[in-house]
């Protein structure tokens, strides 16, 4: 599943189509995608893991789910969920969820919850965390109402950075650790963006998919943890469990 930084990269890559008219539309979506033909792209936006194509009067929301992909000016050997053609190229979205948003985006999205947004509000994030004292911190980081854009890689790496065990309860974290959690969720997301653009993201993983803790030089632990049962990598020695 693409995380927030990857959606920002997509938004930047599609900049040449901003202000351009859609000349043809196709795909296996069950929605009335034909309504997009002839419409001009007003803007591309992102919120967390949602990619947003803005037209006058409506927005197309694309969520890549677990296995969604896209291709710009090239195609895969399968039918796209949505294909948009322009005079200067095309974009294809595969295995994705497509929805129309008919209302203004400011009424749909809380931009202050998007870790990649300049409007991200750490104070609001801390307040939301206080209201979830019995939540595992690994689940809290994946809560899109608090950390929109954070996915499994960022979750694992942030918790390793701040030395917090993923099974820790949010309400048991010292205030200093809660603040670090919020700060590092944002900081790592922008590190992710930089490394992803440079094609060196995996080289910088410290604990995600690793078999050995780089700090302790002992076996790392892999568990399917939390309400979502996502893959969780951690060190049982240097990451403190707050219970």
From TrEMBL:
GO terms for biological process: base-excision repair. InterPro entries: FPG_cat, FPG_N, H2TH_FPG, Ribosomal_uS13-like_H2TH. One of its GO terms (molecular function) is damaged DNA binding. It holds the Pfam family Fapy_DNA_glyco. CDD domains: BaFpgNei_N_2. Residues 2-101 form the Formamidopyrimidine-DNA glycosylase catalytic domain. The keyword Hydrolase applies. Keywords: DNA damage, DNA repair, DNA-binding, Endonuclease, Glycosidase, Hydrolase, Lyase, Multifunctional enzyme, Nuclease. It catalyses: Hydrolysis of DNA containing ring-opened 7-methylguanine residues, releasing 2,6-diamino-4-hydroxy-5-(N-methyl)formamidopyrimidine. This is Endonuclease. It comes from Chitinophaga lutea.
């Amino acid at each position: 599943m693409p995380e927030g930084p990857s959606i920002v990269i997509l938004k930047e890559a599609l900049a040449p189509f901003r202000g351009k008219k859609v000349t043809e539309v196709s795909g296996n979506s069950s929605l009335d995608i034909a309504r997009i033909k002839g419409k001009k792209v007003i803007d591309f936006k992102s919120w967390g893991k949602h990619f947003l194509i803005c037209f006058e009067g409506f927005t197309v929301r694309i969520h890549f789910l677990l296995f969604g992909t896209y291709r710009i000016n090239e195609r895969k050997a399968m039918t796209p969920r949505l294909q948009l053609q322009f005079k200067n190229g095309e974009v294809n979205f595969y295995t994705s969820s497509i929805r129309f948003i008919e209302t203004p985006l400011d009424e749909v999205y809380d931009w202050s919850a998007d870790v990649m947004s300049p409007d991200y509000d750490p104070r609001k994030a801390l307040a939301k965390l206080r209201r979830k004292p019995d939540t595992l911190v690994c689940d809290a980081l994946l809560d899109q109402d608090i950390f929109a854009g954070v996915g499994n890689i960022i979750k694992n790496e942030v918790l390793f950075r701040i030395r917090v065990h993923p099974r820790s309860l949010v309400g048991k974290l010292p205030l200093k650790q809660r603040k670090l959690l919020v700060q590092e969720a944002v900081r790592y997301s922008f590190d992710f963006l930089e490394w992803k653009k440079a094609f060196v993201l995996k080289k910088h993983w410290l604990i995600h998919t690793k078999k050995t803790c780089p700090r302790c030089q002992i076996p790392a632990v892999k568990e399917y943890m939390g309400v979502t049962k996502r893959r969780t990598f951690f060190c049982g020695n240097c990451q403190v469990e707050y219970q």
